[in-house]
Specification:
Elements: H1 3-16, E1 19-35, E2 40-49, E3 52-61, E4 67-72, E5 77-82, E6 97-101, E7 118-126, E8 131-139, E9 147-156, H2 168-176, E10 186-194, E11 197-218
Length: about 220
């Protein structure tokens, strides 16, 4: 092949091997996860677009699992970055580096049988501490011995966790359980209990509006 032609084609070939991605975020959630039996604590920052729920970026800080990952359901592909900083403000996202396709994803199909259960729930509106608490128990049968799931859901009057979008958890309880959760009470945390003891806790620490465009090239 003519050397001049190769020289002209090289930039085109190089560009074709690069995959540019662009995303916009208009809010983020800081969520704390705790696994009580193992005394494990994890902070995650979820960067999202209120008008497009098909993608989000997560910065996860944990003892054994610190990672930055871009989830994109439209192309069924995730991208991981090198994460070598502690998030403090939105400009820190500019420090994300070395984007690459996450090849650790595996798809496992299993035949799942629907589990039949008996469900009980109770709720309390604590006006003193400004909390609305829902206690939900799912049992295998009426004998009330075999508990499948036991959870506490907390809604609080906390301006720091005012959702950008309608809370799916709050909507679920209002629609399916006919509960009247006050409008200014926002979903804050869930406690999962095993044998009557707290096993895991998920808590929203902060929800904040942002305006940030993330773009990167995968080579």
């Amino acid at each position: 092949m003519n050397k001049l032609l190769i020289f002209l084609l090289f930039p085109i070939l190089l560009f074709s091997q690069q995959d540019e991605r662009k995303y916009h975020f208009d809010y983020f959630e800081k969520v704390n996860f705790r696994i009580h039996p193992y005394n494990e604590n994890q902070d995650s920052y979820f960067f999202k677009n209120s008008k497009d729920s098909t993608y989000h970026l997560e910065l996860r800080y944990a003892k054994y699992d610190t990672i930055a990952k871009m989830y994109d359901n439209t192309i069924k592909e995730n991208v991981i970055f090198d994460l070598n900083f502690i998030y403090k403000n939105i400009n820190d996202l500019k420090k994300l580096s070395n984007p690459s396709i996450d090849k650790s994803i595996t798809s496992v199909l299993k035949n799942k049988k629907a589990i039949k259960y008996i469900e009980d729930f109770e709720f309390e509106h604590d006006t003193i501490n400004k909390q609305f608490i829902i206690h939900k128990i799912q049992r295998k049968d009426n004998k009330k011995k075999t508990i499948i799931n036991e959870h506490y859901f907390f809604f609080s009057k906390n301006k720091n966790i005012c959702p950008i979008n309608n809370s799916k958890i709050k909507e679920h309880f209002i629609k399916n359980y006919k509960l009247e959760i006050p409008e200014d009470y926002h979903y804050e945390k869930t406690l999962c209990l095993i044998d009557g003891k707290i096993n895991t806790q998920d808590q929203i620490i902060k929800i904040e509006k942002i305006d940030f465009d993330l773009s990167f090239i995968i080579k």
